[in-house]
């Protein structure tokens, strides 16, 4: 790979599946974090059980933001990341469907070109994800997680106190933790 400034972060025939699985793990962690925050909110503000039953993380985060009186500007990017993740994991990185019915393009959830997030890729093309793209996605999830734990509190609202262990996370096993 001499002369290539951006070698693939992961090489080999299962590269797309491994990256897709990593993105799925990030999404799952965010989903569990949303559940935890919802459980800490007053029952009059949000139905934590209903939130916990939602499977789409983008929709789940939007529900939580609505309960907090916030907008949800990251909804479209989370949805695009979900489609991109599924494309990597299930289709070996080949785009097989569009964002819209009968469409020809899919939106990706990482930067392309001049730091523009949400670039388009045609159905039939293969997704390319670089180490910089992965770092951008990780930074995005880190920002969302930090926002949820109160690093960036909502003006006029108290910071949500997060318990060290709640009933949902008490029985959770983290992948590769050896238990």
Give a written overview of the molecule.
- The chain has about 180 residues and is mainly alpha-helical.
- It has a domain at about 15-95 and about 130-155.
- About 45% of the residues lie in helices and about 5% in strands.
- It is built from six helices and four strands, in the order ααααββββαα.
- The chain has helices spanning about 15-40, 50-55, 55-65, 75-90, 130-150, 165-170; strands at about 105, 110, 115, 120.
- Helix 1 (about 15-40) packs parallel to helix 3, helix 1 runs parallel beside helix 5 and helix 3 runs antiparallel to helix 4 (about 75-90).
- Residues about 160-179 have low confidence and may be disordered.
Short description:
With 179 residues, the protein is mainly alpha-helical.
Please render the helix and strand layout as text.
Blueprint: H1 15-40, H2 48-53, H3 57-67, H4 75-91, E1 105-107, E2 111-112, E3 116-117, E4 120-122, H5 131-148, H6 167-170
Antiparallel strand pairs: 1-4, 2-3
Helix pairs in contact: 1-3, 1-4, 1-5, 3-4
Main traits of this protein?
elongated, 46% helix, mainly alpha, 6% strand
| Topology, number of strands | 4
> Which class of secondary structure composition applies to the elements?
mainly alpha
What's the assembly state of these chains? single chain
Main sheet attributes: strand count, strand direction, barrel closure: 2 strands, antiparallel
Instruction: Give helix and strand order, one letter per element, not per position.
Output: HHHHEEEEHH
Instruction: Please report the number of helical segments.
Output: 6
Rg, nearest Å: 18 Å
Distance between the termini: 38 Å
Instruction: List low-confidence stretches.
Output: 162-179
What is the 3D shape?
A: elongated
Strand content: 5-15%
């Amino acid at each position: 790979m001499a002369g290539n400034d951006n070698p693939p972060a992961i090489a080999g025939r299962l590269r797309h599946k491994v990256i897709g699985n990593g993105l799925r793990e990030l999404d799952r962690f965010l989903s569990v974090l949303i559940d935890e925050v919802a459980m800490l909110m007053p029952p009059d503000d949000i139905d934590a059980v209903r939130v916990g039953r939602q499977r789409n993380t983008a929709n789940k985060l939007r529900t939580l933001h609505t309960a907090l009186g916030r907008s949800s500007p990251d909804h479209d990017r989370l949805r695009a990341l979900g489609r991109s993740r599924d494309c990597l994991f299930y289709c070996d990185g080949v785009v097989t469907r569009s964002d819209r019915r009968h469409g020809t393009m899919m939106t990706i959830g990482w930067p392309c070109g001049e730091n523009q997030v949400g670039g388009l890729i045609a159905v039939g093309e293969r997704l390319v994800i670089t180490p910089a793209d992965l770092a951008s996605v990780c930074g995005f999830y880190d920002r969302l997680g930090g926002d949820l734990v109160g690093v960036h509190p909502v003006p006029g609202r108290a910071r949500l106190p997060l318990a060290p262990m709640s009933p949902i996370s008490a029985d959770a096993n983290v992948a590769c933790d050896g238990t």
